[in-house]
Amino acid sequence: MGDVVSNESLANLLREERRFAPPAELAANANVTAEAYERAKADRLGFWAEQARRLTWATEPNETLDWSNPPFAKWFADGKLNVAYNCVDRHVENGLGDRVALHFEGEPGDTRSLTYADLQREVSQAAHALTELGVQTGDRVAIYMPMIPETVVAMLACARIGAPHSVVFGGFSADALATRIKDADARVVITSDGGYRRGKPSALKPAVDEALTRPGTEDVRSVLVVRRTGQDMEWHEGRDVWWHEIVDRQPEQHTPEAFDAEHPLFILYTSGTTGKPKGILHTTGGYLTQISYTHHAVFDLKPESDVYWCTADVGWVTGHSYIVYGPLSNGATEVLYEGTPDTPHQGRWWEIVQKYGVSILYTAPTAIRACMKWGDDIPAKFDLSSLRILGSVGEPINPEAWVWYRKHIGGDRTPVVDTWWQTETGGMMITPLPGVTTTKPGSAQIPLPGISATVVDDEANEVPNGAGGYLVLTEPWPSMLRTIWGDDQRYLDTYWARFENRYFAGDGAKKDDDGDIWLLGRVDDVMLVSGHNISTTEVESALVSHPKVAEAAVVGATDPQTTQAICAFVILRGGAAEDEGLVEELRAHVAKQLGPIAKPKRILPVAELPKTRSGKIMRRLLRDVAENRALGDVTTLTDSSVMELIQSKLPSAPSED
Ligand code: 6R9
User: Fold this and answer.
1) Cα torsion angle, 130, 136, 138, 140, sign
2) Is the separation of the CB atoms in 169 and 613 below 8 Å?
3) Residue 455, phi then psi, degrees to nearest 5
């Protein structure tokens, strides 16, 4: 990685010298200042031990990190705590029972606000109900739910009784659900009849019924069903239990038990690039320490006045860490929205921001680009003046989208924090701090205080400023994954084998002249064209910098002359005519931005791109299309019809240069 093309492209991105200093008032009152970097550098473990004191421990830890058996970390191992107590009860005990924890907004427009006292009651009752269903400490519970308050309650109830949850995204198929139930050997599944999606009830329970016919799922003895849509479904007497029938009659008090800091909190499956999904295992004390700290630091959360909204699905790690555990451990008031951003109209999100006075918004680049495509006039119709911090996560955010987000959503006033992290890291790792960092559109910039990351070359040497390579994490961190569920060897092989004593994240990155980090996408996606490494992210960013392109996905397709040829799939902005002239114009545009070597061989206008639940483009499937192969695993696609649409557009023979 990191040859001529990348450097030219970076210079191009920085050409306009767009820099945004933190607003003075925010900087003056920031939760975390520049001094934190120094303190953490001088004493990293001392820094994290100090952050652990944000939590309420039943037994305070004396030990910070046990790294005697790397890469199997133990953080705060002699401490004991209850995660649900930290997220709920302690706020009530501190006199905040009447503070709203969740403003729920259903897609059809139904609403419900739960205070911390409400949450305490519901979590306690749900914990009793799980115990009545025979769930014991250590048993796994699968959660397959829409974005409704009961989902948050269910996760916290599991945490409360020490039963690790495995949340499976509600958009996944019965097969994907069955594989995950089987791998975790779940004993109970919590689901609902359905949820609202694009103006219609969308069923969930039938997928659970189907999944439980698959071999390997026999250990599931109960299915707990929340009534959300009221739609018809099969009922398995003796196995299925209505949530309202069992939960509502339970005692409203429940004494939380303290568990060891290394007690498992959850398993979350990530599909990765090959075959079997990996069950990423997170534990409690270190995880909650880092999630609570980063939510406080990176969003500068003022829990008494802020209204926070993370638009992610709870089935994604972002939902776990920054809808459930981070905000609630900090006593935040937050919005939980069930549906899609364009139902019933394309201003729905902005209507919600206006209605609740949202001050901190956390979303993904894919959503920002969709809003750009729908037009600036839509957010302009709403009062977004309550917003003070905007966050981005999930993919590299291209500078155009970053600048649009700040301007049209943030009123040219709010800092944008581009947060790099992974399911495996549990929490944020590389990001600006809103009251400290002068931001550069498109860059995640620097590791947080207490986090050590760098960019290395093939031989594991740190690259100098201005060069690119592989992103690695050089020291253990509190919310790191502990292993892959049931497969320590795969944990070693996947993350720790490529570079000695360093965690390899799988992402390409480069450092600019100031040493700030720019993410370049997954290294599996890097293309080799006539001896040059070219990052898909850079070509995509160049394409979307053209006014007629709304979104782009780029892959390298096997090519007899050049090893790989760049093949681009683009979504055009409304009104742009799709003709040969435009394709030529786009190819020339990329060549001008990045150099002739990066000029795509083929550009195909399409209506949609294949994406995962978190909005990441599934380039693997586009490569299959570009190379005329049968499609690989499509079970983690949000909408499987997308691929048929794309394939139907493909000319049978690739066009020649
Ligand atoms: C939180 C999350 C992890 C992968 C990661 C990287 C990409 C996430 C990013 C980003 C550039 C950012 N990624 N945030 N790339 N800039 N701010 O997304 O977890 O679903 O496990 O994905 O997402 O490629 O390695 P997960």
Assistant:
1) negative
2) yes
3) -120, 130
- Residue 593 Cβ inside 6 Å of ligand 1? The answer reads no
User: Any residues with CB less than 8 A from the CB of 390 and at least 6 apart, and which?
Assistant: 360, 361, 362, 363, 405, 406, 409, 410, 414, 415, 416, 417
Please work out whether the CB of residue 396 comes within 6 Å of at least one atom of ligand 1: yes
Ligand 1 centroid, distance to 124 Cα (angstroms): 34
- 503 in helix, strand or coil? strand
- DSSP state for residue 524 in the 8-state scheme: G
397 lies in a domain?
no
Range of the domain at 535: 530-648
Q: Is 250 in the pocket of ligand 1 (CB under 6 A)?
A: no
User: Coil, strand, or helix at residue 265?
Assistant: strand
Q: What is the pLDDT of residue 449?
A: 98
When divided into structural domains, the chain yields a total of 1
Name the phi and psi angles at 605, rounded to 5: -70, 130
Give the contacts of 522 (CB within 8 A, at least 6 positions apart).
273, 506, 507, 508, 619
Does any ligand 1 atom lie closer than 6 A to the CB of residue 619?
no
For ligand 1, atom 26, the nearest C-alpha belongs to: 422
Q: What is the DSSP string of 303-353?
A: TTT-EEEE-S-TTSHHHIIIIIIHHHHTT-EEEEE-S-TTSSSTTHHHHHH
State the CB neighbour count (10 A cutoff) for residue 304: 10
The protein residue whose alpha carbon is closest to atom 14 in ligand 1 is 394
For residue 315, which phi and psi values (nearest 5 degrees)? Answer: -75, -5
User: How long, in residues, is the chain?
Assistant: 657
- The span from the CA of 565 to the CA of 570, in Å, is 16
281 located within any domain: no
Q: pLDDT tens digits for 54-69?
A: 999 999 999 999 999 9
Question: Rounded CA gap, 466 and 4, in Å?
Answer: 11
393 lines ligand 1 (CB under 6 A): yes
How many angstroms separate the alpha carbon of residue 156 from the centre of ligand 1? 25
Tell me if the pTM is above 0.85: yes
Q: How confident is the model at residue 647 (pLDDT cuts 50, 70, 90)?
A: confident
- Dist CA 156 CA 133 (whole Å): 16
Query: Radius of gyration over alpha carbons of the chain, in Å?
Result: 24
Instruction: Please tell me the distance between residue 297's alpha carbon and the centre of ligand 1 in angstroms.
Output: 19
Quickly tell me which residue has 């545009």 as its tokens.
589
Q: Kindly state whether residue 138 falls inside one of the protein's structural domains.
A: no
At 582-596, the pLDDT tens digits run: 999 999 999 998 889
Q: Does the residue 554 lie in any domain?
A: yes
CATH number of residue 544's parent domain = 3.30.300.30
pLDDT the model gives residue 7: 52
